[in-house]
């Protein structure tokens, strides 16, 4: 009887679900209207139930259509006014369909729940309807790269929630609208972080009212318009600003004197205007990386005193700016400098290159000046351009410097350890030598933080960043390929990088895959490495080779005929599946117990493994999560084995550490790491999610920590630049994690292997201590130390522990002191036979500036900036490496002192690790209404 009632309830549930899946009639009618006006709609757009039968590109919630995402599928036609019947629509993305033309219907203002309106790279024209101002919940408005004309609707100012406004690359004209008490304006967008209005025909002045000190703007892009008048001083109040492009206009007058208040500015383009007055004062703008103020009519002056203070500078372009006097040799001492273009000025005297220049310096362009002598050219291997200087009139061996050569910077993704295979005429070989039909398009980078366009390292970082983003969103991408050739012909142009995205496990993408990739790039979910690449937009090509959907395309009549019999059959099948599932669960539980038993036996300790809140994963599951441990998912390797990125069915990213056969831990060490991490919980410790001990494998599953190891950042491998304040925060985070292990874990834990490779950085650059394989718990019965076998990493290891085999918490303190010196110097503890601790001890002189440690400090730390607390930090590091151990501080003392250093520098020790300059997108967790949004 019970079984019959359960069967009846199951039947009712199935019938109810079938009814609930039916699409709301008005939504169905609206989609039919769109289908009638479009060509090349997805083949499975048949039947009366778009939600229940899964029309591709259509997303539903509770039988209502909530999203339309159809990028790069070759749609042609126009927008139907009937789509306003989709009253629950939240996302409309029709990007990269060049065949979509005509105006946007005014009725779009009725889509009151719309959050994302993304029509990038189509052929829409006419004015932008002012009814868009009625979409009060809109967060993301991206209409760039169309043919919109007319003025920017002032009603956009009503969009009080708007975060992203992108109208780049259209034919918009007229003034930038501002409010006047009657009508709205863009000055009312108090939550916006992005004004992208470049490459239009906007005219008039830049209104002073457009900016105020409360605005969180990080991008202001007004380049390539017809703006006139002066630069408003109110722009200097927007202290969150990171990227400013107002080049290519007709702006006049002086640069506001308060511009040096923009201390978070990374890229500044003022070129090709009619600016006058003195050269802008860039003092204190310590994060500036790229500066172009060319082709203006500034007052003639000698080199400004701020030249050598811009320690982050990679590119200085001051062509035709009336610069005069002796060439500023101090400019060459900047540690990150790549390009200096000072052509068409009045510089004279000698050019002294010498040996003090940055080893990254690739171009010095001084054409059309008055240089008459050159010293130190033998020490310089980059490009030097001296055409039309007096020195070129002297006979000698300067011909190579006096003849202009064209740049041929290029890049092409290389094959990855594989032999090329012949592909059919229309297929392309991927970086892994697999023939496929890639999805192609062009990335347009509107600003950059580098100018060495021939440096492959930057594009390798971009490739990895793209793949990480595709994998984190569980998209079926195998690899990507980038192509760059003769990239920039003028400073007003954007860097164009051709992108090919290859499918995973098949020769082509299906339509859903293409739309998902297009959406990720169109709505800026993908954020390129902010330390190198600034804001961008993507224009995708039409994809013609997509695979047919496997979803059913039968007519509704056939469905109705078979539905009754299907339900009955389904009930029987579900009952059978339930029985099989119950048996499998029992079998898996037995296997689970068996694996714990194996682990316990191999540990030789005889004790039962004690894990709480840590899951057991089967090898089969982990193979699925990592695509069979594919090379594309590999994110790290070492003597122990390899680390792979994976994704759980919930979408959570994980890091999977798989030991090599020859480097497996003893069962006891493997057991120790699992047990320790299962009972320690702190924000500065990496979280263990689970493990696998099956078929001779030892695998640990951790939370995914997105920015890799501290070692990668210090070495430049990750592309993340850590300035002084960020390094202090990293030190504090790692110290807090260690202090927790020493003081609050029960029993206390000594890590035994603190080093930069075992400090990981999350998306906000918060430090997390990892790798507890050789950690040692200390019971009360063992007293203040334990005698044990020496383990650790040379260079970081406590000499006292090494000599006596007596392990204490002070052994970790010593390793942490070495780590602090590594943070200062970016050097390995032992390099070229020299030990950093001894080198610093012998060189330190407390009577001199920076303790006489100039030659040791990492240039990327921001030398020349105010490094508040540096001496206290060095003093603390040297106390940590004192011999004997009892002279060293406890970790809780170390934490307190680093907190004091940050407070003295005017920084809250508990604030988020990143500053606004850490990335060009400010993270605001939990504020986004749907996952994957740029601010989620």
From TrEMBL:
> Which CDD domains does the record match to this protein?
STKc_IRAK
Q: What is its main location?
A: membrane
Q: Which GO terms describe its cellular component?
A: membrane
**Biased composition annotated in UniProt, kind: Polar residues:** 911-927
What are the Protein kinase domain coordinates in residue numbering?
A: 629-902
Q: Which residues form the signal peptide?
A: 1-21
Residue span of region Disordered: 911-936
Residues at which ATP binds? 661
Q: Where is the protein found, in the record's own terms?
A: Membrane
* GO molecular function terms noted in the UniProt entry: ATP binding; protein serine/threonine kinase activity
Gene3D superfamilies per the UniProt record, alphabetical: Phosphorylase Kinase, domain 1, Ribonuclease Inhibitor, Transferase(Phosphotransferase) domain 1
This chain belongs to the protein called: non-specific serine/threonine protein kinase
Organism of this sequence: Quercus lobata
């Amino acid at each position: 009887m019970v079984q019959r009632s359960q069967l009846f309830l199951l039947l009712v549930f199935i019938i109810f679900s079938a009814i609930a899946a039916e699409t709301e009639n008005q939504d169905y009618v609206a989609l039919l209207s769109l289908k009638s006006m479009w060509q090349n709609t997805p083949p499975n757009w048949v039947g009366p139930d778009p939600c229940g039968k899964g029309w591709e590109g259509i997303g539903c919630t509770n039988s209502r259509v909530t999203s339309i995402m159809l990028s790069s599928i070759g749609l042609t036609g126009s927008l139907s006014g009937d789509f306003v019947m989709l009253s629950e629509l939240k996302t409309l993305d029709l990007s990269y369909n060049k065949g979509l033309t005509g105006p946007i219907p005014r009725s779009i203002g009725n889509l009151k729940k719309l959050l994302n309106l993304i029509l990038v790279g189509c052929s829409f024209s006419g004015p932008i309807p002012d009814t868009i101002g009625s979409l009060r919940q809109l967060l993301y408005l991206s209409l760039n790269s169309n043919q919109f004309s007319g003025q920017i609707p002032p009603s956009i100012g009503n969009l009080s929630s708007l975060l992203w406004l992108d109208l780049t690359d259209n034919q918009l004209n007229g003034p930038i609208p501002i409010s006047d008490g009657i009508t709205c304006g863009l000055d009312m967008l108090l939550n916006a972080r992005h004004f992208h209005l470049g490459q239009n025909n906007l005219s008039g002045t830049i209104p002073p009212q457009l900016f105020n000190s409360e605005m969180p703007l990080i991008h202001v892009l007004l380049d390539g318009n017809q703006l006139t008048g002066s630069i408003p001083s109110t722009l200097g109040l927007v202290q969150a600003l990171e990227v400013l492009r107002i080049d290519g206009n007709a702006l006049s007058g002086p640069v506001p004197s308060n511009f040096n208040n923009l201390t978070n500015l990374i890229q500044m383009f003022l070129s090709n205007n009619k600016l006058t007055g003195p050269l802008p004062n860039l003092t204190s703008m310590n994060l500036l990386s790229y500066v172009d103020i060319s082709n203006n009519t500034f007052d003639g002056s000698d080199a400004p005193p701020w030249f050598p203070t811009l320690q982050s500078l990679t590119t200085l372009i001051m062509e035709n700016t009336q610069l005069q006097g002796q060439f500023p040799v101090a400019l060459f001492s900047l540690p990150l400098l790549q390009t200096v273009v000072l052509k068409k000025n009045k510089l004279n005297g000698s050019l002294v290159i010498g040996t003090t220049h940055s080893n990254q310096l690739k171009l010095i362009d001084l054409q059309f000046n008055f240089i008459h002598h050159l010293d130190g050219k033998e020490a310089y291997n980059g490009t030097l351009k001296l055409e039309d200087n007096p020195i070129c009139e002297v006979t000698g061996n300067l011909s190579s410097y006096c003849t202009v050569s064209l740049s041929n910077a290029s890049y092409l993704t290389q094959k990855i350890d594989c032999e090329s295979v012949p592909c059919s005429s229309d297929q392309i070989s991927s970086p892994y030598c697999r023939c496929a039909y890639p999805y192609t398009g062009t990335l347009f980078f509107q600003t950059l933080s580098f100018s060495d366009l021939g440096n492959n390292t930057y594009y390798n970082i971009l490739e990895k960043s793209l793949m990480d983003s595709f994998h984190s969103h569980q998209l079926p991408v195998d690899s990507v390929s980038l192509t760059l050739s003769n990239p920039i012909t003028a400073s007003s142009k954007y860097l164009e990088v051709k992108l090919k995205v290859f499918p995973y496990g098949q020769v082509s993408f299906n339509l859903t895959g293409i739309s998902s990739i297009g959406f990720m790039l169109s709505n800026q979910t993908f954020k390129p490495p902010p330390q190198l690449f600034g804001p961008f937009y993507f224009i995708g090509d039409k994809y013609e080779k997509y695979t047919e959907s496997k979803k059913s395309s039968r007519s509704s009549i056939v469905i109705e005929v078979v539905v009754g019999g299907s339900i009955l059959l389904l009930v029987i099948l579900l009952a059978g599946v339930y029985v099989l599932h119950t048996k499998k669960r029992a079998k898996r539980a037995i296997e689970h117990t068996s694996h714990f038993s194996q682990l316990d036996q191999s540990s030789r300790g005889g004790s039962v493994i004690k894990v709480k809140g840590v899951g057991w994963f089967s090898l089969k599951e982990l193979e699925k999560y990592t695509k069979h441990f594919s090379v594309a998912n590999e994110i790290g390797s070492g003597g122990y084995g390899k680390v792979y990125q994976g994704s759980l069915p919930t979408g959570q990213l994980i890091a999977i550490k798989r030991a090599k056969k020859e480097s497996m831990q003893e069962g006891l060490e493997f057991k120790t790491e699992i047990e320790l991490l299962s009972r320690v919980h702190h924000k500065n410790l990496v979280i263990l999610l689970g493990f696998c001990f099956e078929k001779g494998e030892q695998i640990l599953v951790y939370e995914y920590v997105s920015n890799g190891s501290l070692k990668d950042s210090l070495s430049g491998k990750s592309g993340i630049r850590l300035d002084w304040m960020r390094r202090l925060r990293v030190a504090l985070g790692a110290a807090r994690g260690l202090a927790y292990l020493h003081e609050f874990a029960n029993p206390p834990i000594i890590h035994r292997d603190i080093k930069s490779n075992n400090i990981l950085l999350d998306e906000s650059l918060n430090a997390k201590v990892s790798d507890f394989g050789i950690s040692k718990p200390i019971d009360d019965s063992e007293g203040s130390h334990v005698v044990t076998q020496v383990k650790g990493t040379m260079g970081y290891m406590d000499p006292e522990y090494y000599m006596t085999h007596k392990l204490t918490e002070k052994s970790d303190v010593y390793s942490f002191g070495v780590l602090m010196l590594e943070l200062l110097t970016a050097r390995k503890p032992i390099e070229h036979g020299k030990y950093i601790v001894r080198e610093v001890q012998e060189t330190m002189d407390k009577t001199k500036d920076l303790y006489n440690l100039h030659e040791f400090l990492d240039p990327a730390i921001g030398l020349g900036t105010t490094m508040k607390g540096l001496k206290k930090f060095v003093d603390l590091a040297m106390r940590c490496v004192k011999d004997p151990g009892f002279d060293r501080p406890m970790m809780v003392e170390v934490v307190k002192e680093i907190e004091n250093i940050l407070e003295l520098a005017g920084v809250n020790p508990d604030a988020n690790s990143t500053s606004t300059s850490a990335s060009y997108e400010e993270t605001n967790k939990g504020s986004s209404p749907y996952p994957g949004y740029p601010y989620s």
